[in-house]
Specification:
The protein is mainly alpha-helical. Helix content is about 70%, strand content about 10%. This is Type-F conjugative transfer system protein TrbI.
């Protein structure tokens, strides 16, 4: 039995629809997220915290104040790696050090402020 033209046209349109849906899905969920690069300036966050701890320690008048500052430093040291691990999951992108990027691109997102919020949150 020979297929008629209407049947071939229907199959062709169905194939075109399926291929278009597959390519659109691939573009939205695989390709575009892979193009986004998150950058983070860890050194800047670290320097700011270091200055804060130094200021607290120099103004500390009692051993209790010093212990509080050391607890803050220890807490920061524990939160920093956790925050760095969370950033790629939250933005759905590759996260690299800002110093490793030669120049900003339209697909570059600065996540330094998000990192700062994560390490300062209680």
């Amino acid at each position: 039995m020979k297929p008629n033209t209407a049947q071939l046209l229907r199959h062709g349109l169905l194939t075109l629809l399926v291929v278009s849906a597959a390519l659109t899905t691939y573009d939205r969920f695989v390709l575009r997220p892979a193009l986004i690069i998150g950058v983070v300036d860890v050194a800047d966050v670290y320097r700011a915290k270091e200055a804060e701890f130094t200021q607290i320690l120099t103004k500390a008048s009692s051993e209790d104040d010093r212990q509080k500052a050391l607890f803050m430093a220890r807490s920061f040291a524990q939160r920093l790696p956790v925050a760095l691990e969370e950033l790629p999951r939250e933005c759905g992108c590759l996260v690299v050090l800002k110093a490793a990027v030669a120049g900003p691109t339209p697909n570059t997102v600065d996540l330094t402020a998000a990192l700062r919020r994560k390490v300062t949150a209680p």
